[in-house]
Amino acid sequence: MGKTSAPVKKNEYIDLTFSDLTHEGEGVGKLDGYPIFVPYGLPGESAKVKVIKVKKNLAFGKLIERYDTSEHRIEPPCDVFYKCGGCQIQHMTYERQLTMKQNQVQDVMKKIAQMPDVPVHPTIGMNEPWNYRNKVQIPVGERDGKVITGFYQKRTHNIIDMDTCPVQNDANDEVVRGIRDIIDELNIQPYNEETHEGVIRHIVLRTGQHTNEMMVVIVTKTKDLPKQKEFIEKIKALHPSIKGIIQNINADKTNVIMGDKSHSLWGNDVIIDRIHDLEFAISAHSFYQVNPEQTEKLYDQALKYAQLSGKETVIDAYCGIGTISLFLAQHAKQVYGVEVVPQAVDDAKANAKRNHIDNADFFVGEAEKVMPWWKAQGLNPDVIVVDPPRKGCDEKLLQAMIDMEPVRIVYVSCNPSTLARDLRILADSGYETQEIQPVDMFPQSSHVECCALLQKK
Ligand code: SAH
């Protein structure tokens, strides 16, 4: 029997016991089977909750007072955790974070993929789940006449004035503060989203964890960068790791951080980093995994699932700067990588050379267009690896994979929901998911990375 109305009203105070977690890490309590989502509630805890928003099938609430404390609750180390939109689950022990992520993957495999029996292994975690991020993209703003940098407050575009971020690597943290103070000192105008005026929009930093090489990207609204010479000199002096300074111009009214055009202001336009025994050059527009320790574990898993003997032809779709491709190439006959960002493909080609790998070729284009073309050219890979962005694989790409009939597919994903959707489609065309390994790329956030092994039936 369907319910005709929700059992709660907006602004009502209720007592609620949490029995579950959402994929975002919010507590879920039920009244007569009707779920209420409450940020920071943990399973087993009871609390007084204010109902904030009521929908037909669910409501959202705010935690007002907790009556008890879960054994999985800890004091979040970050001062701005409850405001900042960056992290969602610092209030959970790391162990509980890892089981939450495993459960999340099991849940989508049940509900979306309709494959409840596929083994989802325990999430591979970090030894120290802090200071891991090698990349920061931080908005610059102004408050009370002072330049501020910080992440956006949850669900808003208000910048939280912050000095430090505990998931960032320390050098990035230090240089963000330094550049913020230089902008203030030189009186360069931060960009204002509302008026679409001002100069500096974002500071983007990327540091090679194994080499300590740092790239600074200053994203500006205007082409003109006032006091450019002084600005560069002062940034250079901030940290010995800084190897290059780049200006990126983004004149649009948009939430996208970087614009299409970049030019070097000083130094190198790539940084070098190492993953295991390979070296990679990375330019400003290229994707590069943000958690170096976990990247190695993820790639090890992908390579293990690929089960290469040295004789195989392998496709790496959505290959970025060719990271996974080059690890595959060390154990395969030939690897073909495809990637849509031209700068990343340039990096991939240079990276193959840099590592003296001559059995990996890289192509620019949309994977969903290049793969059918490859198929038409008679390319029949033994193994395909895919690592798409959050929206998952394009249907045309899934079809091209099916048409190519590889013995195995290794699917690397940063979004369990689209992974599960695609695994269902592939299963219906004869590719059985054998197992899934979640890897914690983003500790303290609710996101999880996965590596899935599919075998042709
Ligand atoms: N495997 C790489 C990159 C993964 S991120 C690594 O581990 O570093 C996903 C990549 O897919 C990004 O580099 C992005 O630019 C690229 N991409 C996005 N849409 C694409 C498409 N339609 N065709 C090919 N590549 C695409």
From TrEMBL:
Q: Which UniProt keywords apply?
A: Methyltransferase, S-adenosyl-L-methionine, Transferase
The UniProt entry's sequence similarity note says: Belongs to the class I-like SAM-binding methyltransferase superfamily. RNA M5U methyltransferase family.
Q: Which GO terms describe its molecular function?
A: methyltransferase activity
Binding, S-adenosyl-L-methionine: 289, 318, 339, 387
Question: Where are the active-site residues found?
Answer: 414
Annotated GO biological process: methylation
Q: What is its EC number?
A: 2.1.1.190
Keyword check for Transferase: yes
Q: What is this protein called?
A: 23S rRNA (Uracil1939-C5)-methyltransferase
The segment(s) forming the TRAM domain are: 7-65
Pfam annotation, one family: TRAM
Q: Which domain of life is it from?
A: Bacteria
Supply the SUPFAM superfamilies for this chain.
Nucleic acid-binding proteins (SSF50249), S-adenosyl-L-methionine-dependent methyltransferases (SSF53335)
